[in-house]
Amino acid sequence: MGRSSSKPKKQPSRVTEQDKAVLQLKQQRDKLRQYQKKIHVQIEKDRQVAKQLLHDGKKSKAKLMLRKKRFQESLIEKTDGQLENIEQMVHDLEFSQIEAKVFEGLKKGNESLKKLHEIMSIEDVEKLMDETQESIEYQKEIDDLLAGGLTEDDEEDVLAELDELTKQDMALPDVPTDELPEIQKEKEKKRAQREERQAEMVPAS
């Protein structure tokens, strides 16, 4: 059995119908411009021919050539109007594409805002703002204190508390320097045992 090969899926084209329409209009515009250039060249030739015929005394033929030239000029005027219409259509289509992209961006932005509003209500925002303001004010009070911004009442309170702590420190009993009786007895017992061991180690004479 032969191995079946799966063809890769064709990616969807990003070219929209509006893009195709704009491209076709621009191609038509370019063709009209080329046509105008061709007519301008022909008009100049007809003018030179009419001038030469008039110089040769062929007035009727010169007049006929000038009529032809005038007809060519009328074609230029018509193509000018067509070019203006095409340019306007191209502008309108391109601008509509921009508007569609802007609308899509606004739509996505609005959806994102709705999701944010579902997560965080107005009450939550107000509460957060109040807490933030309280924290800022509290920190400002600390900064003022550290910066020496105490009032006279604050200074008096600090001095009064310092005096109270000083009095408490002076009222504390002195720390005893003598050892406790239990510790003294334990030391004497260990010293007696040490002297007894040393006496046993001395040989009898």
TrEMBL record:
<dbReference type="GO" id="GO:0006900">
    <property type="term" value="P:vesicle budding from membrane"/>
</dbReference>
<feature type="region of interest" description="Disordered">
    <location>
        <begin position="1"/>
        <end position="21"/>
    </location>
</feature>
<keyword id="KW-0472">Membrane</keyword>
<keyword id="KW-0813">Transport</keyword>
<keyword id="KW-0967">Endosome</keyword>
<dbReference type="GO" id="GO:0000815">
    <property type="term" value="C:ESCRT III complex"/>
</dbReference>
<protein>
    <submittedName>
        <fullName>Charged multivesicular body protein 6</fullName>
    </submittedName>
</protein>
<feature type="compositionally biased region" description="Basic and acidic residues">
    <location>
        <begin position="182"/>
        <end position="199"/>
    </location>
</feature>
<dbReference type="GO" id="GO:0015031">
    <property type="term" value="P:protein transport"/>
</dbReference>
<comment type="similarity">
    <text>Belongs to the SNF7 family.</text>
</comment>
<dbReference type="GO" id="GO:0005771">
    <property type="term" value="C:multivesicular body"/>
</dbReference>
<feature type="compositionally biased region" description="Basic residues">
    <location>
        <begin position="1"/>
        <end position="12"/>
    </location>
</feature>
<dbReference type="GO" id="GO:0032511">
    <property type="term" value="P:late endosome to vacuole transport via multivesicular body sorting pathway"/>
</dbReference>
<dbReference type="Pfam" id="PF03357">
    <property type="entry name" value="Snf7"/>
</dbReference>
<keyword id="KW-0653">Protein transport</keyword>
<dbReference type="InterPro" id="IPR005024">
    <property type="entry name" value="Snf7_fam"/>
</dbReference>
<feature type="region of interest" description="Disordered">
    <location>
        <begin position="165"/>
        <end position="205"/>
    </location>
</feature>
